[in-house]
């Protein structure tokens, strides 16, 4: 669509959880604000509003992104997955089930961001992306094979998501529970296109966040 613009607002389309939403946004509005206040998708939380806590994590073209740092006007046509797109009350995503079974939360405020970040992280590891905790030996012989996700790797890869209740031990256990499943579904991150490489994200293509999400239900 041709964006309709004024000095302070633009009309654009965001594809959120496989639904296209055409909205008029203030040029100062972040993706997080549009999700919560205009689309009424309140799963993504505003914690710090400064890119420090991860409570607002969404998948942008299949890669993790802090939605509080993304100016919505720059993302016309983008594909986003929020926690609402991973599962529902009838069919939880495996990582949602694992969080529930492991009691991986207390107040729950950080939990949507933790789960979305965990899904994105599992995709990254399944595609062989190293982390700061990846051993020099593993880096030297890196072949693009799935990265081994031991506890140090999980902690490092999830370090952008803060839990003020300190539920970290159970969060790590919940992610461990689905790791093997994720590695079997290597390279199937939802909604990745080459357009996602900016804004601190990577890219990919896909059509259905629920069916392509890693790990699949
Ligand atoms: S609210 Fe976005 S990182 Fe904290
Ligand atoms: S469960 Fe309360 S902040 Fe994480």
TrEMBL record:
Q: Where is the composition biased (Low complexity)?
A: 196-208
Cite the residue spans of the region called Disordered.
Answer: 187-217
The chain positions of domain 2Fe-2S ferredoxin-type read 10-86
The reply to whether Oxidoreductase figures as a keyword in the UniProt entry is: yes
> Entry's CDD domains?
fer2
Cite the Gene3D superfamilies for this sequence. Answer: 3.10.20.30, [2Fe-2S]-binding domain (1.10.150.120)
Matching InterPro entries: 2Fe-2S-bd, 2Fe-2S-bd_dom_sf, 2Fe-2S_ferredoxin-like_sf, 2Fe-2S_ferredoxin-type, 2Fe2S_fd_BS, Aldehyde_Oxdr_Iron-Sulfur, Beta-grasp_dom_sf
Which top-rank group of organisms is this from? Bacteria
Enumerate the UniProt keywords alphabetically: Iron, Metal-binding, Oxidoreductase
Identification of the protein by name: 2Fe-2S iron-sulfur cluster binding domain-containing protein
Checking Pfam families in the record gives:
Fer2 (PF00111), Fer2_2 (PF01799)
Q: What is the lineage of its organism?
A: Bacteria, Bacillati, Actinomycetota, Actinomycetes, Kitasatosporales
């Amino acid at each position: 669509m041709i964006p309709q613009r004024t000095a302070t607002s633009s009309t654009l389309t965001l594809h959120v959880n496989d639904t296209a939403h055409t909205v008029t946004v203030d040029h100062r509005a972040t993706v997080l604000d549009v999700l919560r206040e205009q689309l009424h998708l309140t799963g993504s939380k505003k914690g710090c509003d400064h890119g420090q806590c991860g409570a607002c994590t969404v998948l942008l073209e299949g890669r993790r992104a802090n939605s509080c740092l993304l100016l919505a006007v720059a993302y016309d046509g983008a594909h986003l997955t929020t926690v609402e797109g991973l599962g529902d009350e009838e069919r939880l995503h495996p990582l949602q089930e694992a969080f529930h079974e492991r009691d991986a939360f207390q107040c729950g405020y950080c939990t949507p961001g933790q789960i979305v970040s965990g899904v994105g992280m599992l995709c990254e590891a399944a595609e062989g992306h190293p982390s700061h905790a990846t051993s020099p030996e593993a880096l030297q012989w890196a072949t693009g094979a799935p990265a081994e996700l031991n506890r140090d790797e999980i902690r490092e890869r999830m370090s952008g998501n803060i839990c003020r209740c300190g539920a970290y031990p159970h969060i790590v256990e919940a992610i461990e529970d689905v790791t093997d499943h994720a590695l079997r579904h290597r390279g199937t991150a939802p909604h990745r296109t080459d357009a996602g490489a900016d804004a601190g994200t990577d890219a990919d293509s896909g059509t259905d966040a629920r069916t392509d999400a890693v790990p699949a239900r």
